[in-house]
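Problem statement: downstream parser choked on a complex file, so we are re-checking the raw output for the heme C run. The parser issue turned out to be on our end (a line-ending mismatch), but while we're here, posting the original submission so the record is complete.
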Amino acid sequence: MLAIAACSTYQGLPTPVGNTSWRTKLLPATPQRVEGNAEAGLAYLIYGDYIGSGIPYEFMKNRMLKKPDVILKREGLNANAQYMLNVFDAPNGAKVVNGNCFTCHASSFEGNIVIGMGNSFSDYRKSLLTAARVMHTGMNLKYSKQSKEWEAYEDFGHYFREMAPHIVTNQPGGNPAFRLAEACMNHRNPSDLTYQEKPNFEMSDYPVATDVPPLWHVKKKNALYYTGVGRGDFSKLLFQASVLGIPDSTAARKAVNNFNDVVAWLRTLEPPRYSKEIDAPLAAKGEALFTEHCSGCHGTYGAEETYPNKLVSLDLVKTDPLYATYGMQSGIVAWYNSSWFAQSEPRSWFVPDSGYIAPPLDGIWITAPYLHNGSVPTLEDLLNSPQRPVYWSRTGESAEYDYEKVGWRYERPEKPKGDWTFDTTLPGYSNQGHYFGDKLSKEERKAVIEYLKTM
Ligand code: HEC
Ligand code: HEC
């Protein structure tokens, strides 16, 4: 970590944390609210108003799909919206358009869109600041400040401009959702969530970003996010995406009740089953090895499902520490814990710590690349660390899956080239750590991978 900081040209990298005195911690469960309605939860995600404000529909009308979208098969004005957009009514009744959760939580696989799978194809390396300015100028030209449209756009306009400079990444596939939340919360009054020009805290310059976890893990988890920082009521935690445009805590209060249904929907999600043949005797050998070497952290699968909800210290897992360290030093923690999110019922709060959750491995065959920073392209590489590529590239959206190594088919360029090279030498993106597969023989590793396909 020190070495990384020393050779980097980035300002504002978080300070490394020293040795931790603990190895693993059990993340405690918090009682959740009464059961919601899963069907209503999905409907809210794909029709709902949880972002609060957005671009006038009139503005976007010509950019809608020519034919109805076949992925979500929605009705009304949403029928011709791309699956990652919602058309909805702002609090004043104006029709607006904004992104939905599936911008980041749905992804392309073998020509289909898998709902709930993290999108590892996004590219935030280009600044959205120009887009924010163009949009603002366009709004100014077309609508008066007194219009309904302007009122329904204004909050999103503020936050879009505030977050745009902070969500530029230095890696293709890196998702800056944490920075997005940080930048928006930085300009919200903690008690009533209204916009304020003056920032609440200082933000680091470093564009930290991560992979996106699959949503079908939520039902097993006691705490959310890679670091387990998200505690308490899940409906309140998930509502976090709304900081991008919700006007204030009154609108937030109304919207958050629907997230009880969203949590219910998340709990119904199942991972896609492995689509090729599995060698059952080999998988059975793998299961025994998995029980011996991996279950202590990742739990058991099949007939007897268990999941221990373990946070593993940076010292033990040894994967790139930057994301955890960043989270511990960000002003977002004090803001969140003093805000409407933590101070009103149902409460949610942040507990940052120097480790990563050992995640559930359900559907692990389809969720490459691996680790919280998406630095390892295949399971074979993950379980055999000397084999991990320093630079790897796949060919954009049409990238092929490798069912042998289980993960993305990739090339190993000598140095970063072209558009889509993942560079593990950048701060935050190292492919170090998780050496638990190294002690296995080649045959044993093959067996474990065969077993992982069954999850
Ligand atoms: C801009 C991209 C983006 C959008 C939009 C987004 N998310 Fe996420 N989401 C992420 C990323 C990245 C993470 C991983 C962050 C982490 O774990 O530290 C995440 C984490 C999560 C998790 C935690 C999963 C786990 O295993 O701990 C849940 C649940 C979740 N998001 C649900 C939602 C919902 C519901 C919405 C819409 C209301 C949403 N997200 C919108 C990018 C996004
Ligand atoms: C001491 C606890 C521990 C043990 C033992 C362990 N893991 Fe992990 N594993 C973790 C943690 C923590 C992470 C997340 C690290 C990160 O993202 O930086 C992880 C991540 C993974 C991932 C990537 C998950 C993803 O979605 O990207 C896979 C696959 C995995 N482990 C498989 C295994 C297998 C197979 C074994 C046994 C050979 C094993 N692990 C042993 C703690 C452990």
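For whoever reads this later: The pocket of heme C (ligand 1) is lined by residues 50, 99, 101, 103-105, 175, 177-178, 180, 210, 212-213, 215, 217-218, 221, 224-226, 238, 241, 262 (CB under 6 Å).
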